[in-house]
Every structure is written in C-alpha cells, then in structure tokens.
Amino acid sequence: MTRVALVGGNGKLGSIIREVIDETDDFAVVRVLGSGSDLSEIDGVDLVVDASVPAVSVEVVRTATERSINVLVGTSGWSNERIAAVRPLVDAAGTGAVFIPNFSVGSVVGSALAAAAATLFDSIEIIEAHRDTKIDSPSGTAVRTAELIAAARGNAVDAPHVDQRARGQQVASVPIHSLRRPGVIARQEVVLSGPGESLAIVHDTVEPARAYAPGIRIALRAARDARGVVVGLDRLIDLGIRTPDAAPDAQPVDEGAASGQVARSTGAASPA
C-alpha cells in the first residue's frame, strides 16, 4: 500500500484526486494538508501529491525532495524554467518528481496534435478559458502547449504586434490569451494559421472528475516509481504521436513564492 500525503486536498483538484485515490486499492491518503498545515507533516509517507497553489507548490516539491519522498505535482504555474530550478535537487536526492499540467487525456492529445502541426503553420496562438476562481494565468496547460509547439518548431512563431498588451502574453513566442469567467470549466483552443487557411484544435472539460480520473491513476503509479523529473501526461501514455521534449535546456528560474500570475516564470513578456 502506497501511503499518500495530499497537499491542497480540500480544493477542487485535491478533492477529485482524493476521491480517485479512495477508489484505488493500492494507494491510501493518510494525511491531508491545507493552508494551516506544516509541510513537516509529510514525514513518513511514500508519496506526496501536490494540488495546492503556485505560491506554495515550489516549497512542497523542495520539502518532499529533501525528505527523499517522490512527488506528483498537479498545481499550475510550473514552466520549463521553474522545473529546471528544482531538477538538480531531485537528481541529487535520487527521487522522482512528476509534473502534470493537465490530467485530462483529451487535453494532452489536443496539445500533442498542436505540436505535431506546428511545423506546418507559422502563425499560432492559444486562447484558454477557465472559471473565474482560477487564480493563475496563463494556465499550466497553455504554457505546456506553447512550450511543446516551440520545441517542435525550433524557431519562433509569426506573432505580429506583440508589443501591444491586447495581443496576449507570449510564452515561448506563442501568444496566449486567458479568459477567466463564470459559466466555463476549462477550455483551450489552439489556432494555427497559414496562407488561405486556418486550423483550430479545441478541447473542453465538461465534467472534471470524470475527465481527470484516468490520468490521475496513470500519474499516481508513475510517480510512485519515478526517478528524476518527468513532465506531462504525454510522457506516460502512448498517444501514437511523438511529442518533443519541451526545452530540455531551459535555464533555471527561482523567484521564490510565485504569485497567481505566473508570467514571470515563463520567460514571457509583460502580462496582458
């Protein structure tokens, strides 16, 4: 039995993860940490699952790694640069850290399709929408998608007039436009344009608990046995589409506690 400490277990994602673990025979949640908890409470567990907030997530990963405990991170805000900052700690400890920007298999397929098509279109932009209670922007899924697109292309996309704030925030040269509003759960649209045509790849999350459960189970088992850093659900399942390693040589960025806006950690321009 794998004993799990769930950080942020009372939030939306944390509650879904807890329900999945409760229905899984070989995992058990033995500790649930909230905003008033001390991270030392993770002592004695086999796996830490982080479903907290960007301002806390870095310390969760550091604390777990220092205690030689593997960690599964579902919290947003982890760009390649921020992951690069903790990679040496994970490698030195001989532990595993699995970062999953989105547990939805459909979302991962959408991002992989966008990366596969990225070399065929010079103009690419991302529009993502989440409910108004989501505190970070752009979403971790949008950041991951932009990084996969950039890695597949090997050069910048054609994005004119990005000096204008209304043109969105650039991540790995890809403009991302973030909507936060009621009446939506999670939606991402990647628009790829070329001479005389455009292609839109759209993913909608309608029922998060049902959409995330298969990916959560896959990620739990991978994180339990992982060594080193693994990024993305696409690294754990066979999509039939080869996705590139997103900027494996990214330079570390460690800004301490991240705010809800993760723009600075993406190497992007000023937030729109």
Q: What features would you describe in this structure?
A:
This protein has helices at residues 12-22, 54-66, 80-93, 105-117, 140-153, 208-225, and strands spanning 2-7, 27-33, 47-50, 70-73, 96-99, 123-130, 169-171, 174-180, 186-194, 197-205, 228-231. It is globular. It has two domains: 2-102 and 208-253, NAD(P)-binding Rossmann-like Domain (Rossmann fold), CATH 3.40.50.720; 105-205, Dihydrodipicolinate Reductase, domain 2 (2-Layer Sandwich), CATH 3.30.360.10. Helix 1 (12-22) packs across helix 6 (208-225), helix 2 runs parallel beside helix 3 and helix 4 (105-117) runs parallel beside helix 5. Mean pLDDT is 91; it is low at 254-272. It contains six helices and eleven strands. By secondary structure, it is an alpha/beta fold. The strands form two sheets. The chain has a six-stranded parallel beta sheet, sandwiched between helices. A five-stranded mixed beta sheet has the order 7-8-6-9-10.
How is the secondary structure organized here?
Elements: E1 2-7, H1 12-22, E2 27-33, E3 47-50, H2 54-66, E4 70-73, H3 80-93, E5 96-99, H4 105-117, E6 123-130, H5 140-153, E7 169-171, E8 174-180, E9 186-194, E10 197-205, H6 208-225, E11 228-231
Parallel strand pairs: 1-2, 1-3, 3-4, 4-5, 5-11, 6-8
Antiparallel strand pairs: 6-9, 7-8, 9-10
Helix pairs in contact: 1-6, 2-3, 4-5
